[in-house]
């Protein structure tokens, strides 16, 4: 079988924050791709603002480096399971994977999720044990953990013979030895191992074309762009080709532009052959998993599987008393256009219309997936409100089933009891417990996804910030009986519209935790804090101190109030109850009751009670 020796296609996979993007940045620096004067911004492959701020990769990026006459195409993949749909499709584009594992933390749940996808595709693995320079690094044990994980995930004999490189991507050093003192000031060990271990693509460029779309991009000038691999044959600008759709129907189109990848840039090319990773434009409604073939030889590849959403929220037009004050795009038409444009590139997202023209049900892979969409929209100037997230139930064999997640927790021993108790209350079952011998334990649970909505804030306060929790979708199982999760405490709800005062806040501080500072405009029905008890209570924090003409003995005392608890977007979504909305604008995140007036709320709650009795 003839192979192309001038190219290798490889994906880099890892858990969040194990250093894969840093590794790619270092490979770019040390290869012949970028000139020495071409300064590389830190985290070059994380191009979105949110990606850079959170230090996570959301969308798969493609880059290419040249090393000793070989073009190495590198796909940087998301490490977070909410973006696992991307990972799965990238595995179709490459011939091998570089698994990056932290020399201290070892294998983690998302590592497991992504690696399983790679091994199922029979890809050749290489393991890079990164952060070897950490004081607590334990490279030998980590390699054993990786081997155990490979065996557990059903790796074949060839895959179990994986080469291991020990590196510090931050310092740009690598070695084939696990002794941190043997590190060499170069990444050549990584490059050489990729070229030696990863199979070269099959060269069947003289056969009829097969190009499959694995990722989508969108450009205002050329429309939708399909990114994928040429599996067979060759493709040229100007070719008339056939697109076989997911439903089996076909459409002819002309290739208007082809792009290859070099460094961090896309470059226009005239022709691509089998083994190349390219981007194609010319077909407006091209979609992931569809195949481009010659008009006279239609032979599509099997359709790619895309993970279904597990969580949904209602997105609504903002109708609060402050609607339209802070946003640029506030109408239902603009919000709907933005959601529909997200579908151009995000294949794990679903948007359904409801009975109302001002509301849409948006489904995604998890809280992070949806919260990043909301955060992007607010940064772009959109104003909207969203409901509490809920899980998507499905029927299997006549039984109602819900998504369950595999939860892995690393925590100091003293918090273990309260974690086990809190997760068992949320219907979680402990699967495994490992004591690391240094006062840390690793707990593994299988828990319903709805029990984990809003759990991370409780978990962080329970472990005083020392606990680390990771969870990834595992499977659908029969619905767990009873109510799970949800907020235990009620809300402090404003009765008035106006500006908050120090005097007003002082009067209600002993009732719970306040979210708002003095001098902030609020409205009736807005949530201004969390009650220390289970029920909601109404409060007035706009109250001003009554002035009299009698001088008081303590007139000159300074009023001191506690610092308010400021909620991030994720914390706000976790805090939401079923009868509440989160109002999101470019400048503010507010929590509110769906029914703002107290009397109307009580009537509505009474109706619901009577309906269920």
From TrEMBL:
It catalyses: GTP + H2O = GDP + phosphate + H(+). SUPFAM superfamilies: EF-G C-terminal domain-like, P-loop containing nucleoside triphosphate hydrolases, Translation proteins. Its EC number is 3.6.5.-. GO terms for cellular component: cytosol; ribonucleoprotein complex. Gene3D superfamilies: 3.30.70.240, bipa protein (2.40.50.250), Elongation Factor G (Translational Gtpase), domain 3 (3.30.70.870), P-loop containing nucleotide triphosphate hydrolases (3.40.50.300), Translation factors (2.40.30.10). Keywords: Cytoplasm, GTP-binding, Hydrolase, Nucleotide-binding, Oxidoreductase, Ribosome biogenesis, RNA-binding, rRNA-binding, tRNA-binding. GTP binds at residues 17-22, 130-133. One of its GO terms (biological process) is ribosomal large subunit assembly. Residues 5-202 form the Tr-type G domain. Signal peptide: none annotated. It holds the Pfam family GTP_EFTU_D2. Belongs to the TRAFAC class translation factor GTPase superfamily. Classic translation factor GTPase family. BipA subfamily. Monomer. HAMAP family: BipA (MF_00849). This is Large ribosomal subunit assembly factor BipA. It comes from Carnobacterium maltaromaticum LMA28.
């Amino acid at each position: 079988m003839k192979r192309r020796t001038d190219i290798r296609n490889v994906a880099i996979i890892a858990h969040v924050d194990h250093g894969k993007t840093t590794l790619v940045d270092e490979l770019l620096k040390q290869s012949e791709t970028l000139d020495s004067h071409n300064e590389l911004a830190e985290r070059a492959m994380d191009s979105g603002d949110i990606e850079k701020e959170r230090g996570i990769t959301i969308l798969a990026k493609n880059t290419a480096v040249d090393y000793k006459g070989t073009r190495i195409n590198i796909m940087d993949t998301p490490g977070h399971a909410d973006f696992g749909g991307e990972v799965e499709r990238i595995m179709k584009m490459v011939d091998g994977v570089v698994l990056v594992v932290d020399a201290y933390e070892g294998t983690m749940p998302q590592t497991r999720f992504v690696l399983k996808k790679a091994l199922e595709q029979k890809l050749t693995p290489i393991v890079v044990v990164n952060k070897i320079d950490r004081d607590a690094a334990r490279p030998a044990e980590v390699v054993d953990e990786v081997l155990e994980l490979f065996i557990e995930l059903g790796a074949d004999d060839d895959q179990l013979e994986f080469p291991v490189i020990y590196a510090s991507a931050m310092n740009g050093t690598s070695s084939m030895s696990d002794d941190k003192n043997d590190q060499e000031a170069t990444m050549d060990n990584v490059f050489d191992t990729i070229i030696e271990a990863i199979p070269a693509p099959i060269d069947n460029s003289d056969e009829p074309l097969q190009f499959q779309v694995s990722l989508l991009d969108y450009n205002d000038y050329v429309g939708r762009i399909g990114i994928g691999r040429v599996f067979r044959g060759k493709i040229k600008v100007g070719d008339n080709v056939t697109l076989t759709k997911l439903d089996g129907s076909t459409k002819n189109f002309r290739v208007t532009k082809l792009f290859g990848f070099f460094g961090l840039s896309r470059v226009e090319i005239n022709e691509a052959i089998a083994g190349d990773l390219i981007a194609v434009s010319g077909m407006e409604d091209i979609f992931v998993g569809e195949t481009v073939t010659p008009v006279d030889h239609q032979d599509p590849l099997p359709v790619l599987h895309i993970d279904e959403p597990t969580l949904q929220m209602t997105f609504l037009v903002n109708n609060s008393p402050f609607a339209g004050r802070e946003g640029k795009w506030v109408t239902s038409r603009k919000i709907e256009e933005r959601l529909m444009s997200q579908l151009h590139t995000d294949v794990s997202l679903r948007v359904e219309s409801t009975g109302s023209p001002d509301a849409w049900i948006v489904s995604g892979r998890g809280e992070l997936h949806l919260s990043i969409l909301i955060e992007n929209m607010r940064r772009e100037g959109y104003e909207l409100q969203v409901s509490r997230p809920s899980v998507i139930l499905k029927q299997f064999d006549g039984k109602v089933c819900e998504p369950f997640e595999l939860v892995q927790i690393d925590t100091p021993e003293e918090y273990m009891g309260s974690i086990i108790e809190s997760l068992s209350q949320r219907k979680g079952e402990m699967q495994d417990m490992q004591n690391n011998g240094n006062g840390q334990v690793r707990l593994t649970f299988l828990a319903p996804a709805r029990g984990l909505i809003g759990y991370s804030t409780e978990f962080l306060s329970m472990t005083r910030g020392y606990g680390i929790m990771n969870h990834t979708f595992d499977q659908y199982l029969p619905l767990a009986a009873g109510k799970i999760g949800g907020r235990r405490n009620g809300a402090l709800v404003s009765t008035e519209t106006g500006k908050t005062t120090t005097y007003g806040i002082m009067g209600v501080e002993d009732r719970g935790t306040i979210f708002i500072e003095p001098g902030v405009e609020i409205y009736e029905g807005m949530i201004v804090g969390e009650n220390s008890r289970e029920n909601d209570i109404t409060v007035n924090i706009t109250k001003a101190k009554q002035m009299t003409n009698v001088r008081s003995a303590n007139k000159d005392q300074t009023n001191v109030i506690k610092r308010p608890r400021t909620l991030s977007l994720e914390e706000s979504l976790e805090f939401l109850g079923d009868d509440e909305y989160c109002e999101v604008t470019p400048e503010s995140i507010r929590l509110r009751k769906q029914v703002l007036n107290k009397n109307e709320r009580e009537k509505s709650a009474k109706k619901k009670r009577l309906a269920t009795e």
